[in-house]
Amino acid sequence: MAQAKRKLMHRRCIESYGFLREDGLWDIEASMQDLKSYNVKREFDGSLVPEGSPFHDIRACLTLDDTFLIKEVSVTMDAYPFPNCGGAAPSFSILKGTRIRPGWSRWLKETFSGKVGCTHVLELFPVIATTAFQTMWGPLGEKYPEHVSSSVTKLINSCHGWSEDGPMVRKLVDEQVLKLPSEESQ
Prior knowledge:
The chain has a four-stranded antiparallel beta sheet with strand order 1-2-5-6, with helices on one face. A two-stranded antiparallel ribbon has the order 3-4. By secondary structure, it is of the alpha+beta class.
């Protein structure tokens, strides 16, 4: 089937980075830019966002310890469509002292629903959480090898790649890195 001709109208760029700091903490950053392929006239003041310029330009950084405890929070909003959007950034400071763990994304949606949050900033936090795990997984496994088995066990059946009958899990069982819950009772 031939693909229909298309014209790019909108591009969303999301990038994320994970850094190990010299003090042993981790900085996990994510940014989002929304760009249009045409000039956009802002409704509230008639100002122009030129083609290719960010309509949204938002960045979030969480500083974590080895247990995924959030030590610092930074949210910056350099471009946004309405004059009051930037006012949402300080509300995310209450993340300090919380921990990224199962259920965290749901908690974020509940906590920052309505006029206290920003939909676009909230979209960055699951990206940050995934980037944190990808960044910290290997180094923390080397630093705390006694936790590897229990951490890997929690991943079993969390997705297709980690299915208990898949090749990766079977390899780890064969290497005695982990035991399947069904095999532990035997």
